[in-house]
Recover the amino acids of this structure.
């Protein structure tokens, strides 16, 4: 009886081959929460997404949904982009736009970082500045264009200031939120070891929050690019936005779409540069960066 009972228990605990295969499939579903991908699969899936988008664009452009001049296909836009760089000096416009983005965003970070650190570290500073900066976040940056034109004229100063206004208020609030995530145990330990406010700010708060600061700046840089065309359509002689406005006068939709493609590609390059900087400077967070 004991031998028979042992055999029955063994049979119950050993699943059938078909059941084993089902369990394996359940353990590794194609789509599941919390999955992580290696770089090869991530690049492959990303390429498939672009292929689907470009194919859909090409099919829609060749279905006569709109006149070809108003809705060119990707092949026409790429030919226009090549002509812009080869024949019309578009590289100078691109460099002008990059310079404006770089200068304006650097100024925004220089203003937002100290304010965000102070607001996230000290409740009294936050109580003083948060209501004011929180209200400014909801003001559309283009609303400042008439004032900036009267104050600064039509030169680069007006465009750079507009680009800075578009991101600086959001950036302050987001950097303050990152600063608040510093564990209170770190602060209390530093105080116990004799650290003053200044020393704690530089050796604890800044070092703990620096990865979050970099990631926040990466996200807000995308917002800065969205304001580029708005900044360059008013009394601009160079830049991607100025080229697009010149193309609008002659109904060159292919040139306008080429400018949009250029802004998207530049944004992706800047985002990739920030991601590379993040991984090089914070290798101990490489796993978390890959998951995000």
């Amino acid at each position: 009886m004991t031998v028979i009972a042992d055999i029955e228990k063994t049979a119950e605990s050993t699943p059938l081959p078909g059941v084993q295969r089902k369990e394996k499939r359940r353990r590794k579903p194609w789509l599941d929460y919390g999955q992580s991908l290696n770089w090869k699969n991530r690049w492959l899936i990303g390429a498939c997404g672009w292929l689907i988008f470009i194919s859909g664009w090409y099919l829609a452009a060749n279905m006569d949904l709109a006149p070809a001049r108003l809705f060119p296909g990707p092949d026409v836009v790429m030919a226009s982009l090549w002509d812009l760089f080869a024949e019309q000096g578009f590289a100078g416009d691109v460099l002008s736009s990059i310079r404006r983005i770089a200068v304006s965003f650097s100024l925004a970070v220089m203003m937002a970082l100290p304010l965000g650190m102070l607001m996230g570290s000290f409740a009294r500073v936050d109580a003083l500045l948060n209501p004011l900066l929180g209200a400014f976040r909801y003001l559309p940056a283009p609303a400042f264009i008439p004032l900036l034109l009267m104050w600064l004229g039509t030169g680069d100063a007006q465009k750079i200031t507009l680009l800075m206004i578009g991101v600086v208020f959001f950036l302050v609030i987001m950097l303050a939120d990152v600063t608040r995530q510093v564990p209170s145990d770190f602060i209390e330990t530093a105080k116990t070891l004799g650290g003053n406010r200044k020393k704690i700010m530089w050796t604890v708060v800044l070092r703990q929050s620096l990865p979050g600061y970099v990631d926040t700046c990466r996200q807000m840089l995308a917002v800065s690019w969205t304001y580029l065309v708005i900044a360059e359509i008013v009394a601009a002689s160079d830049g991607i936005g100025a080229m697009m406005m010149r193309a609008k006068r002659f109904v060159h939709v292919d040139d306008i779409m080429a400018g949009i493609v250029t802004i998207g590609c530049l944004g992706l390059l800047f985002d990739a540069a920030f991601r590379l900087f993040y991984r090089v400077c914070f290798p101990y967070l490489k796993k978390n960066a890959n998951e995000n």
User: Anything to note?
Assistant: The chain has a mean pLDDT of 86. The chain is about 80% helix and 0% strand. Residues 73-291 form a domain with the MetI-like fold fold (CATH 1.10.3720.10). The two ends are 58 Å apart (CA to CA).
